[in-house]
Every structure is written in structure tokens, then in C-alpha cells.
Amino acid sequence: MRVFFSNLGCKLNQAELEQFGRQFLAAGHSVVGSLEEADLHVLNTCTVTHLAARDSRKTARRGKRINPQVRTVLTGCYAASERAEAEQLAGVDLVVSNVDKNRLLELVHRRFPETLPMPEASGAVPVPYVPLEFGNSRALVKVEDGCNMRCGFCIIPSTRGQQQSRPLTEVLQAVQGLAAAGYQEVVITGVQISSYRWQDQGLFELTRTLLEQTTIPRLRLTSIAPWQFDHRLLELFESRRLCRHVHLSLQSGCSATLQRMRRPYTSVQFADLVAELRQQVPSIAITTDVIVGFPGETDDEFQESLEFSRQMSFARLHAFPYSRRPSTAAAELPDQIPHEIKRQRMKQLLVVARDSKQRFERYHAHTPADVLWEFYRDGAWFGMTDNYLRVVTESAEDLAHRITTVRLAEPSEAGMTCALA
Q1: Can you tell me the distance from the alpha carbon of 352 to that of 409, in angstroms, rounded to the nearest whole number?
Q2: Is it true that domain 134-363 has CATH number 3.30.830.10?
């Protein structure tokens, strides 16, 4: 089969989609770049907000409108939370639950036996690593899934279940294989990777092992819960291979709102952690998520969260209006915030997010940096520094999948401009 993959949602979804791609390639299928070319459309859905669920439905229906012959397979969090609805969507041929994601290729073969026979070897399907022409220079590796927390706003425990970690040896083999295939960066991802635990080894031991026993030029961490940060990680940032970037999900800069959200920290504790990271790891990029309009959020509480977000000067701030999700505690809370108030608050927070990003970029103007060049578009090369600065340059040289030293110039709409060394 010719297979087209599409994704909605988080980096964890993207990591799963990359793994699906490798499995389908190993089974003899091909990966194509559009629905028009495809025999099969695999969509990894999202339902973290009502808009994400709506987009999942729209994308699922779109397949057969573009290509009447394509078969559509849905998996992911929308498919898990609204399975009956997903199965009834026009054009959907198969729904695979999150718990069965590891068997997606097998289930596709069973549903469509005329495609290819099941691999005769028992056990896991052998997984080659996608050649660079099928992807970019960065690969995502899932190390854990699910969540044991019950934050008031979050549907993830319902759609992904209890937290489970991947064996350390399996993660190690995956990263070694990606390095051998020519990837320059691996992004370690999960619901919150700070929950990783395998045979009394946590994120610190996992990261140290990957730095010691692989040759991957860059290793990037994501989604660390503020209350779970292992301070031993600070010593690992002495390695130039560990990217100076940590994503700490704030959700609100007001401690009273955090308490209603069932988040086990205060804004003061969060600020203390940020200060320590910046002191120990100069020029580190700290990115975050902030929700506006959580039930009961007063004007004063919002202004407190807004000012806190401004003071933190995040490298990137992802702002979201609160979305009422079924089966969450917050869905039943009183004082739900009207849409218009959430919209006005979002406008203010997006200004803070833009200004914070620009400050971070200006701070690094006219400094040297190592850039991993990822793709070429509209006459320019685009890449990323280890501390999450998007960089753009014009060059006749083929920079694809290389890490080069540059001197950053000025911020632009497309990213930091630079001069090649």
C-alpha cells in the first residue's frame, strides 16, 4: 500500500506517527506525501480541546473527499474518547484505540487482508529507520505514555490510561538506530517524561545512558512536570549534546487557580525552578503552556497570571483558552467563563507571548550558535539552535541534515537571520 500519515496534536502523537511509518516501511509498504497518492490514510487524532476534536473529525472526513479510493484509519485520543462517533464518521474504515496502537499495522492487515500478508516472523515487526528523504533531521522517540495525575482540566488520563514506561534498553536501541541512520537530533517525548520509570531508573538515568551509549549529536527533552524536575539533570547539561531547552508546563501564574486546577505547585515554586535552571544552564530556553479562562478565574487572578507570565520571559509560550472536556473535574465546576471573556484574555496573553519570544531572540542577536539545518523552502534554509531558536539563511550550499556554526544576526518574521561561518 501507499500510505499517507497525518497528525493532530502533541509531539507524542508525532512520535507515534513516525514509529508507524517505520513499521509500514518494514512491512513493504511505501510512504507518500499526499492524500491524492495514497491507498491508506492513517490519522493520529487529538481531543485535548473541543477545537482539536472538531479538527480531528474534519480531517477524517476529508480523506475520501480528496481521494474516493483511500481507506481511512483513525487512532489517537479523539478516537479513544469518542469511539462510537468516530466509527460513524463518513469515510472512516477502521478505528484503532490507544491501547491497541502498537498493533496498528497488524490490525490494518486484518481489516484489509488483500493488501499484504502478515509478516511471518512472530513478535515485533522489524523496524528500519526512515531514510532522511522521508523525514527531516530530527526524530521523536516516545519513552512513556499515559498519566496518573488528575488535573482538573485534562482528559489525557481518560484517553491514554495509566502511566507506562518503555524499557530503557528498548529506548537505547531506538536512539542508536536513529543515530546510525543519520539523524542529527532525537527528541525524547511522552505525556510528561519526568514520570519515566523503568526498574528504578528515571529520566536522569535514561538521559545519562543515552548520552554515554549513543552517538546522536543532539538530545532534546520535552514535557517535564515542574514538581518532578530531577535536579541531577543539571549536571548533564554540561554536555554540549544535551539541548539547552526544557518545557515546563505552567498552566497558570496564579497559585489560587493552580490549586483549583489540582496542580501540585505554586507560582513561587515554579519561579524558583526557572531561576535555578537559568543560573545553572546559561541561555537555556524555557517554554511553557498557559490556560486562560479556567472556571472561577477572576479578573484579578487572570492579571496575576498574565504578569507572572510576563516576568518569566519564556522563550515560547503556548496560550490556550480553557476548553470544557467531558469526564474531567473542571467540566462540573461552577463559574464557567464566557467565551467573550476568554477571547479578550487570550488577546492579552498572546501579546505577552509574542513580546517574550522577541526578547529571547534579541538577547541572542550577534552571538555564535550551532544550527541544525532541517529543510529548504522558498529560497532559504531553515534550522534550529539547541536552545530552540528558529534560524533562516540564504545559501547555495546544501545544508540539509548538517550542524554548522553561525553568527546570529537579527530576528525576522521567519526566524533569526545569520551569517554562515
Answers
A1: 23
A2: no
